[in-house]
Design brief:
This protein has 160 residues and is mainly alpha-helical. Helix content is 92%, strand content 0%.
Length: 160
Amino acid sequence: MIKPMTDYFLAEKSESLLFIAVGVLAIAIAVWLFLSGHRLRAMAFPLVAIALIQLVVGASVYFRTDAQLSQLSQHSLAAPAEFKQAETSRMQAVMKNFTLYKWIEVVLLAVGVLLIVFLQRYDVAAAVGGGLVLQSAFMLCLDLFAEARGQDYLKALIAF
């Protein structure tokens, strides 16, 4: 059980660095757009709003993962049945949350596309739509990968 658990948490930690990097990049682009007076400077708003989520989630996952993995590894060795029950329950809740996250991301993606398609002649609408499309598509892709990893880990837990 240690290997599937370690693989899962190390991949989560690696992805959290990607969340942080993209969040920082999105903020840098937003600052440039806003300060340059670019006609699409309103893209800064969705870029920054979602970047803040990326930074908070990325940092919290990154900084808690080592301690969480250590604690769970010890728990799995000391009390395997209790570990299996608690960790399976936790992961089932995590997997349910992915459904909510995907719905939110798909709605934001759709709103962004609709803004671009139907209001493209308005710079603010097109810019906000573009920012929503970029950020929500990125988040959706990463959450799909995270969900697949979570599903693999949950299967390993059930088989434990």
